[in-house]
Design a protein that fits this description.
mainly alpha, 5 helices
Amino acid sequence: VIISRAGANSIAEIAAFGKPSMLIPLPTSAQDHQLKNAYEYAGTGASVVLEEANLLPNLFLFKLRTFLTDQNVAQNMSEKAKAFHKADAPKRIADILFETAHNE
């Protein structure tokens, strides 16, 4: 189980390793992008979000226990994380940029 902020690079690495996660978005992130990232990724079923304002010990421990005691939950989230990961994303982006540059 990975507990992390919700920057794009963090989420990409979590997905690449196929790990279940709990994301705690940085509330002061520019244009609240970490909150948006966290909920978008959690919408795939690969993660849960715990906003810092709600980061109370009992809620944190409850969510953490779910990962640690229910292997089905952790396994399902791991599968969703692996499905989210796009190993060929850099190539796909480069192809789009190359095509766009040559069409102008």
